[in-house]
Amino acid sequence: MSSHLEKRLEQDLFKIRNSVALQAKEVETAVRNSVEALQSGNRELATMTVLRDHGVNRTMRNIDASCHRFIALYLPSAGTLRLLFSITRVNLELERIGDYAVTIAREATQLSAIPTGFIGRELERISGVALLMLHHAAKAFDELSPDIAKSTILISDQIEVSLDSVYEALQQQPLAERSDTFALFAIFTQLKRVTDQAKNICEETLFAASGITKESGQYPILFVDRSGQLLSRLAVAIARTRFPKSGQYSAAGSGDATAQQPLLETFFQRHEMNSRDIVTCDLSTVTDHQLHETDVVIALQGEVEAYFPTLPFHTSGLSWPIVRGDAIESEEELEHAYRELASRIEEFMFMMRGDEAN
Q1: What kind of fold does domain 3-210 have according to CATH?
Q2: Which of 50, 160, 161, 179 is the most interior residue, by most CB within 10 Å?
Q3: Dist. CA 180–CA 278, nearest whole Å
Q4: Does the domain spanning 219-356 belong to CATH 3.40.50.2300?
Q5: pTM summary value
Q6: How far is CA 96 from the centre of its chain?
């Protein structure tokens, strides 16, 4: 490639990257204004936030078109091509964040009163975290800084448990305030999505800067039973054997586990399953924090509600009636439970992870 063409390539790439940086600032301003409109009751600011989103959408389309023209004109090398692919994804993520700001602004105009008390304080705190993540994510991508990207991703861990407490508080509001409850529910959800997209931008930074792709996460799954932890321990052993990288599995149960352990240990040995490091606990010792950190609770006897009447907002519950009686008392019953559990766990993990299940 001639020096003149290289210079043009660098200039055009700089223009595209500068457009993305300006777009990020516009989107950050939109989120900030939507939250300010909500906290102050400023309907004019909310309306202007909605209307200015048309400019964000136009810029998104222009950046996307510029990337396609750049590829067609210069046939860039692998590193530049990787950056352009990341730019197109970040461009879309910024456009989505603009949409979240619009939703917050629209919902702000529907509230009968400015949020106060616990909800008002959490709105201040969570919106602050969302804006901080967005600002640093945009900076990380603009500078292609893996260090900023990695430190920003860590901030997202603060949000999940906080939102669970907010949602629980909203659910307890009086019926007369339910119209505001629905609006506030939508607002907090949009703020959470801002943090999700900011995290995605950081991951695109890592990809663009070094080719590092996002690692598939592991789902925290808790198996529960009444059979002295026999079924739940069996489920953990199956899941760890067949899908060791797809989940973090733990077991909880009630009743005396002592009588059934020889039967289970013999079974594990026969099937060459390692049970030595299975985490088990009594149901009475499962804390609210543990439930908040769990994606799915699976009841292997009876219904989930019999074990945990109320699950945190982000925790899902499933009931698999593997055994309908109180206990497994023979090798034949255990073998039957094993086959059914293995089938259900395989189906469940492929639903959660698809072809990535392992």
Answers
A1: Methane Monooxygenase Hydroxylase; Chain G, domain 1 (1.20.58)
A2: 50
A3: 45
A4: yes
A5: 0.75
A6: 16
